[in-house]
């Protein structure tokens, strides 16, 4: 049920754009007020705020989403833009190329396979599996992958959020258990498993951790984007 | 207008990616193809043009906001997940725990303590 003053506003996409900007900025302010809690990232606060606003206004999600397309269209060029930090980190990749090229395919494959196998064992439907397969991949790339696999993008976003948020405490606990204090390893693990959310966290730890996190994030994204759709096709042909 | 110049670069690479995918039939997203092409171009150039950096940096900083409309969508499909949310949550939680441990352990073995700072 739309309030009468609201209906003229929803005709223009600028209303959805304004709501998104407002929720994003407010989410960031609240995040800083709460002293940057690692278990409650700014994006989660902002998304909850936005969902609450939509519910209170009675604005259907589809109407909102249509307007917000004016923002989300920028995800395309933003993904291309990730080529810049990737280029800037090429020397670092060269430095550690041996361990990284050995670790990345295994770790990135397992990141997808563990979750898929567990969800499959518990009887998740094929659409559902297709939606969570890219759970450790940074959002702009993951959306492309999920659309190709025939999954639900909304569900993928939820999976990304959950994965990103829990990666942060899990990495710090696991690093303590394994007695790892090398910032490069911790950063790489944060980016590989926790995509952009983990990378933001790594930059809070140190610039080195941040650089390795963005490296882990981009490499996982590229590796998964190149291989997951192919692997998926092979599996569906075989079954 | 350096930022606008850079934005045209980014959009052009995305469009090139779209064309490459259309003709090759490869199951990749055009953003990924554009990203790899951009990285290759920069490697050939040997530097990042300032106009490109002016457009790329703010866009990367805004990534979180650009994915927000999609994230919000998950709150509106909760009903459709009836009966399956446990499988998803369990898969994500335990799956991520296992993969975090695997990654850390693998890297520790591969890089080793010798190089630790």
UniProtKB/TrEMBL annotation, chain A:
Transmembrane segments: 6-27, 39-61, 67-87, 99-122, 153-178, 209-232
One family name in Pfam for this protein: LrgB
Entry coiled-coil feature ranges: none
Membrane topology: Multi-pass membrane protein
Localization (cell): Membrane
Keyword terms, alphabetized: Membrane, Transmembrane, Transmembrane helix
Record's keyword annotation contains Transmembrane helix: yes
InterPro entries linked: CidB/LrgB (IPR007300)
Xref: PANTHER family: PLASTIDAL GLYCOLATE_GLYCERATE TRANSLOCATOR 1, CHLOROPLASTIC, PUTATIVE SEROTONIN TRANSPORTER
Name by which UniProt lists this protein: LrgB family protein
Organism expressing this protein natively: Vreelandella zhaodongensis
From TrEMBL, chain B:
Regions that span the bilayer: 31-48, 60-78, 84-107
Membrane topology: Multi-pass membrane protein
Subcellular location: Cell membrane
Keyword Cell membrane attributed: yes
Cell membrane listed as a keyword: yes
Predominant location category: membrane
InterPro entries cross-referenced by the UniProt entry: LrgA/CidA (IPR005538)
This protein's UniProt keywords: Cell membrane, Membrane, Transmembrane, Transmembrane helix
This protein's GO CC annotations: plasma membrane
Annotated Pfam families: LrgA
Protein name: CidA/LrgA family protein
């Amino acid at each position: 049920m739309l309030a009468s003053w609201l209906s003229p506003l929803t005709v223009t996409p600028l209303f959805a754009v304004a709501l998104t900007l407002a929720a994003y900025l407010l989410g960031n302010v609240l995040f800083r007020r709460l002293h940057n809690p690692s278990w409650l990232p700014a994006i989660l606060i902002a998304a909850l705020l936005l969902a609450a606003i939509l519910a209170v206004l009675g604005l259907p999600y589809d109407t909102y989403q249509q307007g917000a397309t004016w923002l989300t269209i920028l995800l395309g060029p933003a993904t291309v833009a990730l080529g810049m930090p990737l280029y800037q980190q090429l020397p670092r990749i060269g430095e550690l190329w041996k361990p990284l090229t050995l670790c990345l395919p295994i770790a990135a494959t397992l990141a997808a396979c563990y979750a898929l196998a567990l969800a499959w064992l518990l009887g998740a439907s094929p659409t559902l599996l297709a939606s969570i397969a890219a759970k450790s991949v940074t959002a702009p790339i993951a959306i492309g992958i999920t659309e190709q696999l025939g999954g639900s993008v909304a569900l993928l976003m939820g999976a990304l959020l959950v994965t990103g948020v829990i990666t942060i405490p899990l990495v710090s606990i696991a690093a303590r258990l394994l007695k790892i204090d090398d910032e490069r390893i911790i950063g790489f693990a944060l980016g590989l498993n926790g995509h952009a959310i983990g990378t933001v966290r790594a930059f809070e730890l140190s610039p080195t951790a941040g650089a390795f996190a963005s490296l882990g994030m981009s490499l996982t994204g590229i590796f998964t984007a190149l291989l997951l759709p192919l692997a998926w096709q092979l599996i569906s042909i075989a079954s | 207008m350096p930022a606008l110049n850079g934005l045209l670069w980014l959009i052009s690479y995305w469009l090139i990616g779209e064309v490459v995918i259309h003709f090759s039939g490869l199951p990749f997203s055009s953003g990924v193809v554009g990203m790899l092409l951009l990285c290759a171009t920069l490697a050939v150039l040997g530097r990042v043009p300032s106009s490109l950096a002016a457009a790329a940096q703010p866009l990367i900083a805004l990534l979180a906001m650009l994915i927000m409309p999609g994230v919000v969508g998950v709150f509106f499909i909760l009903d459709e997940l009836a009966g399956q949310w446990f499988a998803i949550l369990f898969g994500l939680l335990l799956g991520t725990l296992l993969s975090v441990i695997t990654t850390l352990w693998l890297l520790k073995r591969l890089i080793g303590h010798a190089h630790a700072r």
